[in-house]
Amino acid sequence: MNPMLQLTISFPEEFNCFKRRKNKGPEIIYTLEQKTSIKHIIESLGVPHTEIGKIFAEDKEVDFNYIPVNSQKITVLSITPPFDVTRPSFLRPEPLQKIRFVVDVNVGKLALLLRMLGLDAVYSPKYVDRDILYFSGKEKRIVLSKDTGLLECRQVIFGRHVRSIYPDDQLIEIIKFFGINGPFKFFIRCLRCNKKLVPINKKDILHRLEPKTKRYFNRFKICPQCRRIYWQGSHHEKMKIRLQKNGIYI
Ligand SMILES: [Zn+2]
């Protein structure tokens, strides 16, 4: 029979939102039947690995594959924002080339808001976990989700459990967390399908414009995929004011 292992694991307060009721509190005495990775141990307590900034076994920094030994003190730290995913870190030695997202259905409206800022965010209401994992693994995208089970998957290297409830707040949360700064390219991406817009002559789309749009706007773009027409309107201004109010450089 395998010997029983006992660990003392300390967590920051912000992880209480993940932990099961009996595990609340800054320190947990954790016993297990057999040796396993620290990733597995932490996630069995409810905290997805995507939320973790550093792990220490006693005073030594360790990675997700580390296998603790009996009576060790493990300290788990959260990520300190801004989280620059383009720089290597001890837990995530292979950084991302650029910031791109895949958005889960439970935070779908966030995808549209990210696109409004010109950011690359793939999303479909039809996505299942397998699709999200594909975009995370093959296209190296950051997973945005409220599903802790999905974020625990090994294929997900970069992700964020979105804390806020409302889409506008979620946008501010994500922009601040990943330290994304302007200048943002408003009006470059289709809100419906994430494709880059292309300019189009007003005279070529005149038949598709409402009378007021026809009168007040002259610069138009079109989505090469869904053919939706875009112009720089008041919703952009509202968004800019909101971002500025939250101290975000636009
Ligand atoms: Zn489109």
User: What is the overall silhouette?
Assistant: elongated
How many distinct folded domains? 3
The ligands bound in this entry are:
zinc ion
* Class by SSE composition: alpha/beta
Radius of gyration, in angstroms, nearest whole number = 22 Å
Beta-strand percentage range: 15-25%
Spell the H/E element sequence.
EEHEEEEHEHEHEHEHHEEH
Tell me about the largest β-sheet.
Answer: 5 strands, mixed
Structural write-up:
This protein is an alpha/beta fold. It folds into three domains: 74 residues, Roll (Ubiquitin-like (UB roll)), CATH 3.10.20.30; 105 residues; 48 residues, no CATH class. 25% of the residues lie in helices and 18% in strands. The chain is built from eight helices and twelve strands. A five-stranded mixed sheet has the order 2-1-5-3-4, with no helix packed on it. Strands 7-6-8-9 form a four-stranded parallel sheet, sandwiched between helices. The protein has a three-stranded antiparallel sheet with strand order 10-11-12. A hairpin with a 6-residue loop joins strand 11 and strand 12. Helix 2 crosses helix 5. It is elongated and about 80 Å long. 23% of the residues are buried. The model has no long low-confidence stretch (mean pLDDT 94). The structure holds zinc ion. The site of zinc ion has 8 residues, from loops.
Please render the helix and strand layout as text:
Elements: E1 5-10, E2 27-32, H1 38-44, E3 52-57, E4 60-61, E5 73-78, E6 101-103, H2 108-116, E7 121-122, H3 129-138, E8 142-145, H4 148-151, E9 159-161, H5 167-177, E10 198-200, H6 202-205, H7 211-216, E11 220-222, E12 229-230, H8 234-245
Parallel strand pairs: 1-5, 6-7, 6-8, 8-9
Antiparallel strand pairs: 1-2, 3-4, 3-5, 10-11, 11-12
Helix pairs in contact: 2-5
Zinc ion binds next to loops.
